[in-house]
Amino acid sequence: MQSRVKWLDNLSFVGESGSGHSVVMDGSVEHGGRDLGVRPMEMVLLGLGGCSSIDVILMLKKARQDVTDCQVLVEADRADAVPAVFTRVALKFVIEGRNLSTKQVERVVALSVEKYCSVTKMLEGSVDISFETEIVDIADS
């Protein structure tokens, strides 16, 4: 796996993934950036939410659950000192669907966070990671 980060100007950078996708990153105005893109530490949280969401959707589809939506709300705290690493990350999975099995959804979320998500595994030794699940059962339309 490869990627490249290229400096544009000020504190703006473009990240290019090995799969051919790009994202703009920028620093905050108070640090000299222009607020034109996502902060690098926000990218870590997005990666965590995305990685775990992929696991959850794949496992729920394999279990033949009728999932119509999946969101992960990610909240994090950072250390006050430099480096300002994450000290706590809380994930709230909001899974929507028809006739979802509460037991199955909760099991899948736990498996993702505790076993399969690569980003969680990278962070778990240094960050307190917690998670919860909310299931929204929608009526057939």
Structure description:
By secondary structure, this protein is an alpha+beta fold. The chain folds into two domains: 38 residues, N-terminal domain of TfIIb (Single Sheet); 98 residues, GMP Synthetase, Chain A, domain 3. It is built from three helices and six strands, in the order E-E-E-H-E-E-H-H-E. A three-stranded antiparallel sheet has the order 1-2-3, with no helix packed on it. A three-stranded mixed sheet has the order 4-5-6, covered by helices on one side. A hairpin with a 7-residue loop joins strand 4 and strand 5. Helix 1 crosses helix 2. The protein is elongated, with a radius of gyration of 18 Å. The protein starts with a strand and ends with a strand. The model has no long low-confidence stretch (mean pLDDT 96).
Q: Can you tag this structure with a few keywords?
A:
141 residues; alpha+beta; N-terminal domain of TfIIb; GMP Synthetase, Chain A, domain 3; 2 domains; 3 helices; 38% strand
CATH class of the largest domain: Alpha Beta
Please tell me how large the radius of gyration is.
Answer: 18 Å
Distance between the termini: 43 Å
Low-confidence stretches: none
For the report, how would you describe the main beta sheet? 3 strands, antiparallel
Q: Please, how many helices?
A: 3
Spell the H/E element sequence: EEEHEEHHE
Quote the beta fraction: 35-45%
- Estimated helix fraction: 25-40%
The count of DSSP E runs of length 2 or more, i.e. the number of strands, is 6
CATH topology of the largest domain: GMP Synthetase, Chain A, domain 3
Say what oligomer this is. single chain
CATH fourth-tier homologous superfamily of the largest domain:
K homology (KH) domain
- Average per-residue pLDDT, rounded, comes to 96
Strands ordered across the widest β-sheet: 1-2-3
Query: Any idea what the CATH architecture of the largest domain is?
Result: 2-Layer Sandwich
Outline, from the CA principal axes? elongated
Class of secondary structure makeup? alpha+beta
The tally of structural domains comes to 2
